[in-house]
Amino acid sequence: MASPPRAAPFRRGLAFAAGLGFAVVPAIGPFLALLAVATGRLEIHRADRWWWLCAALLGVPLMVTGHAMAGALTIGQVLAVWLIFRSASAMRRVLHDASVPNDIGGGLVVGLALTLTIGLRQLDAMRLDTALTLLDSLTWHGHSALFGHAILVLSSLLAVVVPSARLRIIALALGGVGVVLSGAREAMFVWLLVAIGIRLLRRGGGRNVKIAEWTLIALMAVIASGAATLVGLGRPGFVTNLILPASEEANLLRGTEIAVGDWWHHLGVGVVSRTERVAGEERTVFIVTKAWPEPWARLQQVVTLVPGETYTLSAAWRATDGLRPGLDGWGRPGGGERDTVLTSTVSAGALSAGGSGGVVVLDATLEPLGDGWERGAVTFRFEGERPLGWYTGVVVDRTRSIGAQLAVSEMQLTATSERVSYAAGIADRGTDLQSSRLPIWRDALAAIAARPLWGWGTDGLPRSTAQLRPDETRVRPVAAHAHNAVLAAWVDRGVFGAVGLLGLMVLLSLRAVQQRDRAAVVVILGVLILNVFDATLLAGSVIYPLAAVLGWRAMHPSRAAVAETGVGSFATVRTALALGDAAAGAIAVSLATLAVGTFDPAVTLGGVWTTPLAYAVLVWPAMAAWSGLYPGYGLASHVSLARTVRAAGAGAVALGFGALLFPEALPLPGTVVVLAGIISVIAAPAIRAFVKASLRDLRLWGRPVVLLGSSEASARVARHLLAYPGIGLHPVAAFGNADGWHVSDLPVMGPLDAAWRYVAESGVRHAIVAPDAASGLDFDEVLLRANRRLRYVQFLPELQGLPAASFTAAPLGTALSLEIRNELASATNRSVKRAMDLIGAALLLAALAPMLALIALWIRRDSPGPALYRSERLGRYGRTFGCLKFRTMFVDADARLADLMAGDETLRDEYGRYHKLQDDPRVTGAGHWLRRSSLDELPQLVNVLLGDMSLVGPRPYLVRELEQMGTERELVFLARPGMTGYWQVSGRNDITFAERQAMEAHYVRNWSVWWDVELVLRTPLVLARRTGR
Predict the structure, then answer these.
(1) Planar angle of CA 723, 725, 729, nearest 5 degrees
(2) How does pLDDT run across 620-645, given as a tens digit for each residue?
(3) Whole-angstrom Cα distance, residue 665 to residue 688?
(4) What pTM, to 2 d.p., does this model score?
(5) Can you tell me the distance from the alpha carbon of 821 to that of 819, in angstroms, rounded to the nearest whole number?
(6) Cα 545 from chain centroid?
(7) Which residues pair with 342 in a beta bridge?
């Protein structure tokens, strides 16, 4: 067979240049996308409107808050992402030359190398003589985290798309070097995740390639874990520092011999540095100039104080005459507690110190060092209730002067009860999670609570902190942004921006998840983890390459999945549900706190949200798991609703008991707990419904099911499961006799004997056995024939008219029995249903009274006749009652109907089948709109109050329809007719009269309070669509 033609040299060179340019200058992406638009290769699809919506959600809030230019640029950036994604997909669709992807990949790798080289040019202040290790000597002049994230994302994407295993190793190695030198520890762990994931998913390459790849992974794991310190190689400084100090005498301050580093906070001071001899040793000396008049202006760092620990804070300084330097510290525990403060000052040749808010000063000394140098030291014990992020450093002058200068060196904080010899602090870039991220996230939550809808605009976090906590901005640094992508979007752009950002990520990853493109999903997961600890997603160097690669792979030839397909999707479904339940608990507690805080200013989010509470909200997922909701496949929607509400209520009760038993760890007032419980039983079902819908869109929700047997019972189950994907059982194949099978979406794939091979090859673990197949297959045979691969086997019994929900399976000896419960026979259940009717109807009538009056007036003006129409209907036990409706037909409608059907056989057939006419000429102008919106039935609320009807039940049948009702009419008449019901929210006018009765009989057999609640909640959605299912 002849090989495909090779591309022309010019075309190959152009492909290489495109890859090179995209890697070196990611911002070129939108311009390359415009070429696809100009050449007519990009077609606008209906789904593109979601991209435009995300652009509006991210940009418009900035315009609303007065930042029109920033909003316009944001909209332009998101549209650029859309163009890149769509143009990459379009190029992949039309590109058939196999050599072009190789050339693009080669250009991308070379571009990555150039990007790394250019980035490393930012390294400054190489102080090998004073640093403890080589990595300690590196500081960044630019934004190191953004550089590390960009290099990581670019190298990971290249590792996914490059065609050869060798190029993949080169890309990962270049990315690893950039990540290590960037100092972003979270990026290192994400690099390991991506590298291991791609290695396991893409098994190409020979033995040497595999050895090289695993060696590279092992080396990066050693660096990330900090194990290199054991052999004297030092450890890089990362934001999430997981390595404890080597000893109690270690300096807890960082980079004390390096003048430039993000660990320094210049609070009202300016700083320059030089090298001098201090007490006979060569040291870095900081010349600190006071720029603010405040007496606490200082050069400081942030550390974490541990309750019960004793610390010694010291520094050497050289002061001119008249200066009064000192050592200070400040922190705010939250929860209304006093600020944790340490103050000290030199006076009359001695150092005096004092503390408050948990700081107990034990000793303060001032020691001369010679050449005008002195060393001040303060020993104190921290008696706080929880770990605290504490800002500490050297004060230049305790007076209100400006311009005073102080030479400072050998700054040190140790967890000891006395001063120890000075040791330079290791230059960790950033601080640990407790002190570098949690305080920022608390600031972000406070900003969100103040302006949740539209946000604060650009620079929202410093702007909000300056307005909400002006006293704190003068004593501690404020982060430039929230260091979390979602929080940053919410602070700047409000809830609309947060939703827009999440929607953008869904649009980028949707196709990869649907197609089970596992390598791309690993990279997406890595990007999400990065943006938990920082907000780099919207940076052009991150999102443009991500959009290009995901768009390219969106045209992957693999077929989209239909449900769970493996361990990854299995874990994703359960993780998403658990996160949704945890979010419901967190939202409930937060909203309850905000509501109570409006009446009690002492109740604040910062005071309530403690670390123990963050763990305590996991009680909601725990209760949901105990209720069998992970994942809850096969549960009817009202059963799932009932379990979700009960689990949420149990979670709130458990939290309340925790607050009573551990009031210090969980400082929750009783009103907050009660209100949180009420909110959670509403939020949990709503969030679970949203998560399930999202998982369905991602083709993750549901367990694949094979049907054994092709009887009518099997077809009925297949149609039901296909029509209601929320149940979570997704038929993928049917086996049996194809004769008489009428499920078009699920053809019979062969006889029963062919099912076993299909089960073995497809990995399906759930089978439903129909009665025709069950007659020749017992349970043991199903297990044996399927080679024990089937974990779930359901048998459809040959029993007609039994409830599908109100039963309990129990053994009687060696036999299986089904205990049937008649819920409507319970007086308690009937009382609950009647109470719901009375309360609901009364509240709705009171709320809708003005609208009902306006509708009545409109009807009277639209056509002659009364506003209300009283129709004789069949009620409970077949008794007749007057059913009230707004008049939607002309007053002589019955005569008109008789005339119409007398001359039109088609209309007679339609009315005989559906008992309605699709285009009924008897309906008035106002009646058309009232019927489409179902508002014509609102007067039936009066019938509900009178006891003739219920909010939920079978439809009220016409008296003349009695003879046409089937054998199940007596069962239907056991319940009061309802304003809404099972058939109304499932099919409305789109099903036949016989199917309608069957559905209503099913409702009566399986009635429960929770099913009524679910049908009431679903009714507004059906009304909004103005159509049946």
Answers:
(1) 110
(2) 999 999 999 998 888 888 888 999 99
(3) 29
(4) 0.66
(5) 7
(6) 23
(7) 329, 355
